[in-house]
Amino acid sequence: MRTLDHAELERAQIESVFGLQRRAAIRMMAPFVAGNRNGSWRVERERLIAWLESLEPEVKEKQLRHQRVIKALQDVQAENQALREELRRQGRPDPPSWRLKQDVLARSMVALPTEIALAPGLISVSFPEEDPTRGARLLHELSLAMLNDWTTFCTLTGPAQPDNPANKIDRLLDKLEWEKQQAVNEFVT
User: Fold this and answer.
1) CB-count exposure of residue 43 (10 Å: 0-12, 13-18, 19+)
2) Quick one: 9 exposed, middle or buried, by C-beta within 10 A (0-12, 13-18, 19+)?
3) Three-state DSSP class for 68?
4) Residue (of 23, 20, 28) closest to 52 by Cα position
5) C-alpha distance from residue 41 to each of 18, 32, 152 (Å)
6) Which residue, of 65, 87, 112, 160, is most buried by count of CB atoms within 10 Å of its CB?
7) 104 vs 11, 146, 180, CA distance in Å?
8) Which is it for strands 40-44 and 33-37: parallel, antiparallel or unpaired?
């Protein structure tokens, strides 16, 4: 940015420098518009540079966080590999593994598969006896849904709520959402 000759930059230059499309460039420019000549927005280069420099600490922190996450993932993969190798040395089979679809990672309690049933004081997971890996996958999906939707998990598995109008409505909405999800699951499968 500092090497550019112009004191003001037009939208097309912003698009080119930052690799943005028209709408994104306009959004980025909006707070810094210095003028509008012949229908073309312009921003002061120095104001834009000052704004970018103000973002630098945040960007550096995000980069460091990203590096820490990558390092943690690599450490976990290395530990997992070491455990698998140890199991193989002991003559034991590798534990099962599977991939989860993106929607499973963000699933709520009411969107769980029909094989998982929840009631006060009860969690039930049904799977074919010849496919214990399916049972493990369902438990994994349940644990992710619990992370995403702990309040609903507590409501569904905790003590019955008093019969006040607000709780009745909440239970009715939960039941309707659960039935809707069951119908969608049946339709998809």
Assistant:
1) buried
2) buried
3) helix
4) 28
5) 16, 10, 49
6) 112
7) 40, 12, 17
8) antiparallel
Residues of the chain with pLDDT under 70: 1-3, 34-37, 39, 160-164, 166-167, 188-189
Angle between helices 22-29 and 11-18 (to 10 degrees): 110
Domain boundaries along the sequence of the chain: 8-88, 102-188
**In one letter, which amino acid is 64?**
L
- Residue 166's pLDDT is 65
Specify whether the CB–CB gap between 84 and 103 falls below 8 A. Answer: no
Q: Which helix (H) or strand (E) holds 19?
A: none
Query: pTM (2 decimals)?
Result: 0.45
- Which regions of 16-93 does DSSP assign to beta strands (E)? 33-37, 40-44
Check if the beta carbon of residue 22 is closer than 8 Å to that of residue 11. yes
Q: What does the pLDDT read at residue 162?
A: 63
Q: How many residues does the chain have?
A: 189
Which residues, at least 6 apart from 29, have a Cβ–Cβ distance to it below 8 Å? 11, 14, 41, 43
pLDDT in tens, 57-75: 888 999 999 999 999 989 9
